Amino acid sequence: MAETPSILVVDDKRDLARGVALVLAASTPDITACFSAEEALAHLDERPRDLVLSDIRMPGLDGHALLALVRSRWPQTRVVLLTAFGTVESAVEAMKQGAYDYLTKPFDNDELVLVVRRALDEIAARRELERLRAEIAARKGWHGLHTVDPRMRPVIETVRKVAGAQASVLVCGESGTGKELVARAVHAESTRAARPFLAFSAAALPETLAEAELFGARKGSFTGADRDRRGLFADAHGGTLFIDELSSMSPALQGKLLRVLQERAIVPLGQSTPVPVDVRIVAATNVDPRRLVRDGALRADLYYRLAVVRIQIPALRERAEDISLLATLFLERAASTAGRPGLRLSSRALRLLYAHDWPGNVRELQNVMERAALLAAGDEVGPADIALDDFDEPGLDDGVGAADFGAGEAAGTYEDAKRRALERFQRRYVERLLATTGGNVSAAARAAGLTRAALHRILNRLGLGPGEADESDESTPPGA
Length: 480
Ligand SMILES: Nc1ncnc2c1ncn2[C@@H]1O[C@H](COP(=O)(O)OP(=O)(O)OP(=O)(O)O)[C@@H](O)[C@H]1O
Ligand SMILES: [Mg+2]
Hints:
Structural class: alpha/beta
Bound molecules: adenosine-5'-triphosphate, magnesium ion
Shape: globular
Number of strands: 14
Radius of gyration: 29 Å
């Protein structure tokens, strides 16, 4: 990781602080010099540093006190103490307290540079190790989420960051991108992990039933209420409630949900006294929520309340590196269920997967691999075993994955709709074309009556550029 290491130099003798900073300028551009421990703490509060070089004897807080504070508040920060001749004992003491090293004044520049370089090398090594650990964890799965594509990194980082907070979270992403998995990860990473995670969807529920399901109802409060219901809010008390497909809730029900979020209390149907609840909401939508607000399918006030933290999961077609990882994972799982361990994915089949636009995202890939595991004749899944759907999932009305002339086309400007339709046509055409030539671009260009350059341009525009659809059969696909 090429992150710039940062250094803070602290010495009440201003010339000395400035001089040290000057000498170290060659080691990193991110150096700040300051003249007291108090000042140093203010700098660290503002932004932690990798390395602090501090004098020991200073008016006010001395170097030892600064060391102790840094050790407890910024445990990742290394501290090197600079001590005047004659205070070697206190420097030794400092080492015991956890200083990284010390330099006895007067020190020469080479000595200084050497100690600092050693510390910075160690810091860089530790960072790299952390990055690798995170990558391995993602590959092995993190709360069931497997990913290696850098485009998923912000998703995981945001989940980590916000899990501890109590704020509502809005998870956005096309159908099958893993919204529920992400919602579960938020719960599992939070202090609520030991309490229930419950999921709710208003889809296909009559209004009153949906309300009773969420907030509870007294027996006899509506037709069919043959018993008291506690409701999901009460059942999820202390935990997390996942509200799937927000737009399937009626505006009235959305209003009631908003009130619960504001007042932290529910009023069960047929009851007049509110009951306090402590539930964190994670909501999901597979359509751009701002569009839902514009179309009147999502109340703006509820949107603003929920979108305090918004997590956008990229579509599978936008994270090429996950295609091979997930294809392999799902094939492995399906193969072992089918009693066919060792079943492998051929590079030609993988190429087909790269060329597909995955309107059903990860779920679609999972289904395709499950089918492939059953269809494959030998010990390898070939292109013929990959059955890709010709039409996209219904219900996706954002135009990206809609059926040939789906709801998306009717929305937006003519030019937008045309661009989407054209892109969809190109994707399908190229996908089939490459399938018939086993991914060979030159042969595909010949068959299509295009120049190789023209076909490459189309491939690049579709995000299927070299690497994803290379003409060499043995080339390694990304993420493989
Ligand atoms: N990164 C991933 N690693 C492993 N499995 C995944 C990943 N993302 C999604 N899946 C799997 O894909 C399927 C769909 O995921 P999930 O139900 O979370 O998607 P969704 O966005 O909620 O879909 P929908 O919009 O249809 O409700 C699930 O079986 C899930 O386990
Ligand atoms: Mg879902």
